[in-house]
Specification:
The protein has 188 residues and is mainly β. It is built from two helices and 14 strands; from the N terminus they run ββββββαββαββββββ. The protein starts with 10 loop residues before the first strand and ends with a strand.
């Protein structure tokens, strides 16, 4: 789990966030057999899960989402208590794509989407339990610590989906969705 304290052993610090490095086995590989979380940065990340080969394993990530109030009761909700979202910090393995992430940061190029998925660790690892999609993203900072690469980014819009599955056939049973557009200050 991410921590928000200074540099600590077993963590990679990016900005004010410390992301936890996974436990490694004797051969230096993460002890986790299958990833619970994966991330796709189009034209950047790669992985080895069939059907999800554009996704990288996501070891840790952190963001904060809040509505701070000023106490001034005369203000409108969106002026006195605007929704705030921190940069999103990701910890991924260092790979062939890290140089491209640095290049994108250096040039200030907008990444159209960054998608984080939480996979079911049951009968089908490809079944997403949670999907978070960020739109119009800009990398803010990167930190490499040996085999681990931390990157943080800002964005304009975020959509979180939690698909619900029926028990009998495990087909789609609907979903819960929350979408926030920070450019328009709208929530759906």
């Amino acid at each position: 789990m991410a921590a928000t304290i200074g540099s600590m052993p077993g963590f990679v610090t990016i900005g004010t966030v410390a992301l936890e490095i996974p436990k490694l086995d004797a051969s230096g590989k993460p002890t986790q057999k299958a990833p619970d979380w994966i991330v796709e940065i189009p034209d950047h990340t790669k992985g080895n899960i069939d059907g999800l080969d554009t996704y990288s394993q996501l070891f840790d990530f952190h963001y904060e989402y809040s509505r701070e109030t000023s106490g001034h009761i005369g203000n409108e909700t969106f002026t006195s208590a605007a929704i705030e979202h921190s940069e999103v910090a990701l910890l991924i393995p260092t790979g062939t794509y890290t140089a491209k992430i640095r290049q994108t940061l250096n040039t200030g190029k907008v990444v159209p989407t960054i998608t984080i998925k939480r996979l079911g660790n049951m009968t089908d690892l490809k079944k997403p339990l949670q999907i978070i999609t960020y739109t119009d993203c800009i990398f803010a900072r990167v930190v490499q610590d040996k085999d681990f690469f931390a990157v943080s980014f800002r964005f304009i819009k975020v959509k979180e989906e939690n698909p619900e599955f029926k028990q009998d056939d495990e087909g789609s049973g609907g979903q819960n969705v929350c979408e926030t557009d920070y450019a328009k200050l709208t929530v759906e």
